[in-house]
Amino acid sequence: MTTAVLVITLCEAILLLAFVLYLVRKYAQTELPLLVKGLTVIGWFLGFAVILTVPADIQIAQDTGESSHILKGWYYFSYWSSYLLNYLILPYLTEYIEAGEFTRKGKLMRSLKRNLPYYLLYIVLFIALVVVLMSTQVGQEAIKQDGLVGCLIGLGLVIGLLSVIILIGYGLVEVPKRCF
């Protein structure tokens, strides 16, 4: 039964990839660079593929009593790929493409200068999180139990939630200003 569930999930993933490719081809502007289209496909596929794997993981856990190692590896891959895309690669490429400089070196430097405050914020928040965890008894137990990976996941979730709160707050103020 476990193999059948994994095969069905793989077929769904192939169909999802075809659908994402179709959407990007149909709705993307023709003058967009291929790199932007490729990263859009990767981002959409990773986001939607996690939704596909949850039912398979539940079915396998009900049948065998434990989670599949293949799906666990997929979860780690999709999480860390999304993490790297969202916090490192996409902000850098966004600034690189929007930079007004004429040379690649100029665009690179402009992108790094614009993203440096965010990267420094990530580093400071991570160090602050580790200091807080090391200074409390509960935090020390959490580090022993989950390790550094758990700290990174926690930091990613905190930054993601703060970003959502900031963006929703901005949208709640800006949208009515445009309408009225």
Quick synopsis:
The protein folds into 2 domains: 1-80, no CATH class; 99-180, no CATH class. The chain is built from 5 helices and no strands. It has helices spanning 2-27, 34-64, 69-98, 104-135, 137-179.
Please, could you describe this protein's structure?
Helices cover 90% and strands 0% of the residues. With 180 residues, it is mainly alpha-helical. It has two domains: 1-80, no CATH class; 99-180, no CATH class.
Distance separating the two termini: 58 Å
Total helical elements: 5
Helix residue percentage? over 70%
Rg estimate, integer Å = 20 Å
User: Could you state the oligomeric state of the chains shown?
Assistant: single chain
What's the shape? globular
Strand content: under 5%
How many domains would you count in the coordinates?
2
Number of strands: 0
| Uncertain residue ranges | none
What string gives the helices and strands in order? HHHHH
Largest sheet: none
What is the overall pLDDT average?
84
Structural class category: mainly alpha
